[in-house]
Design brief:
This protein is mainly alpha-helical and about 450 residues long. Among the domains are: about 1-125, no CATH class; about 140-235; about 380-455. Helix content is about 65%, strand content about 0%. It has helices at about 20-25, 55-60, 60-70, 75-90, 95-110, 110-120, 125-140, 145-150, 160-175, 175-185, 190-195, 200-215, 220-230, 235-250, 255-265, 270-285, 290-300, 305-320, 325-335, 340-350, 355-365, 375-385, 390-400, 410-420, 425-435, 445-450. Belongs to the PPR family. P subfamily.
């Protein structure tokens, strides 16, 4: 069995000293027993390590645990082994936050029974615990299970308006807005009795409006926008921000600009989120230069731009082929106290067309302290794969592993697609098998089932 924290993770989990890593590597047997849930108590070490300093005991903390669990977010068995290991080996008392993180990983892989076992063992649950379960059930389209979870939250004194709103938010986020609207505004008397004391006001309507936006049902969005007026619901800044976004995404940016003017007439003070939407709308409908001008107006009115504002400008410049100007904005961001983030670099990656330039930008990103995400690596692997360049694909893959990220199904599929495209069937099959062994979903590829190997 591979060590649970490979050597390449030491750069990410830098607070863990080598002796701690060595202890971790050698504590897991080659043929581990099935995952168990030890009692939540401080275990006694059977063979205490006298050389382990007090400082090393202190670095086995919540932050380190969360960082390591994040590394294993695409490998629930390894994450669970690590979760149990720090408790049994170091007596680490898991916090509500570390429990919630582990529950989220289990839910991602549909290990709901194990997740509920953890919930039962938790010393304390909070609204986040149930929000995680709502999200994981609804993202798997298990709507009834999510609703039952809301009822079950009552066993822990958490069946309140906050939990209800978290349930509705999860339903809307994962495109089950029909069910969300039925729960909030429907005629189910039995359920209405449960939520009788909750206010079905602007906040709930905004969630549902955003849900229709996530569905991309533009006519329903317009219908619900009008229904808000009919139901006497006051539209606030967030309502307008959502609907302006809807108009942009539905290909009507000029209507978003019209809403912006309507807001100004009503005296609704725009925040940075609303301005960002309008800047994008004006950039698409009237050009990037007008968008930059609005950005200056925003500053004059005392609304400080954030990283999303700059990202919007960078994206507009890149889409208009003005890459050099986008580079200048990138240079100015840090000087103005607004450091670029992952999205900033993604905007630039998408418009670059030379492998060496892309790899240089990736190095610049890392050196500046911006850590690439799995989406970054997938974006680049797919880009190089489409171009038929395998060398940069493997350079990116190596960087991903060196930064302690366990590849997800999208990364594996992007790599396998690139290998199949180049006729490297044996290597593609190897990664396909590795992916399946981790419990990740692989694409069905006839080449890997029937194709001849490269050895012929």
């Amino acid at each position: 069995m591979k060590p649970l924290i490979p050597s390449h993770l030491s750069s990410l989990v830098s607070k863990i000293r080598p002796s701690f890593l060595l202890q971790f590597h050698t504590s897991i047997p080659k043929n581990p027993t099935p995952i168990s849930f030890p009692d939540h108590q401080t275990p006694t070490r059977s063979t205490p390590d006298k050389n382990l300093s007090i400082r090393e005991e202190h670095i086995v903390n919540r932050t380190t645990i969360l960082e390591t669990l994040t590394c294993y977010s695409n490998d629930w068995k390894r994450a669970m082994e690590f979760f149990n290991w720090v408790e049994s080996e170091y007596g680490f008392k898991h916090t509500t936050e570390t429990y919630n993180h582990m529950i989220d990983i289990l839910g991602k892989f549909f290990e709901y029974d194990l997740a509920w076992q953890l919930i039962d063992k938790m010393p304390e649950r909070d609204h986040t615990t149930f929000r995680v379960m709502f999200k994981r059930y609804v993202s798997a389209h298990l709507v009834q299970e999510a609703i039952s979870t809301y009822d079950k939250s009552g066993e822990f004194n958490l069946k309140d308006e906050t939990s209800f709103l978290n349930l509705i938010d999860a339903l809307c986020e994962y495109k089950h807005v029909i069910e969300a609207e039925e729960l909030c505004l429907g005629k189910d008397k039995k359920f209405k009795e449960k939520i009788a004391s909750f206010e079905m006001g602007t906040k709930v309507y905004n969630m549902i409006l955003r849900g229709w936006y996530k569905m991309g049902w533009w006519s329903k969005c317009r219908e619900f926008w009008e229904q808000m007026d009919e139901d006497g619901i006051s539209k606030n800044l967030f309502s307008y921000s959502i609907y302006m976004d809807i108009q942009c995404k539905s290909g009507k940016p000029w209507k978003a600009v019209k809403l912006y003017k309507e807001m100004k007439k009503k005296g609704i003070k725009l925040d940075v989120v609303a301005y960002n939407t309008v800047i994008r709308a004006i950039g698409v409908s009237e050009g990037v230069d007008v968008a930059v001008h609005l950005g200056r107006e925003m500053l004059e009115l005392g609304c400080e731009p954030n990283v999303v504002t700059y990202n919007t400008i960078v994206k507009l410049l890149c889409e208009n082929g003005r890459v050099k100007e986008a580079y200048k904005v990138l240079d100015k961001m840090s000087k103005r106290g607004c450091a670029p983030n992952v999205i900033t670099y993604h905007c630039i990656f998408r418009c670059l067309e030379k492998p060496n330039e892309i790899l240089a930008m990736l190095d610049r990103m890392i050196e500046s302290g911006v850590c690439p995400t799995m989406d970054t690596y997938v974006l680049l692997i797919r880009k190089f794969g489409r171009w038929g360049f395998l060398r940069p694909v493997f350079i990116v893959w190596e960087k991903m592993e060196n930064h302690g990220l366990s590849p997800n199904e999208f990364a594996y599929n992007a790599l396998i697609d690139a290998l199949v495209e180049k006729g490297m069937i044996d290597m593609a099959r190897k990664y396909d098998e590795e992916m399946l062994a981790k419990g990740l979903s692989a694409k069905l590829r006839p080449e890997l089932l029937n194709g001849e190997s490269e050895d012929g």
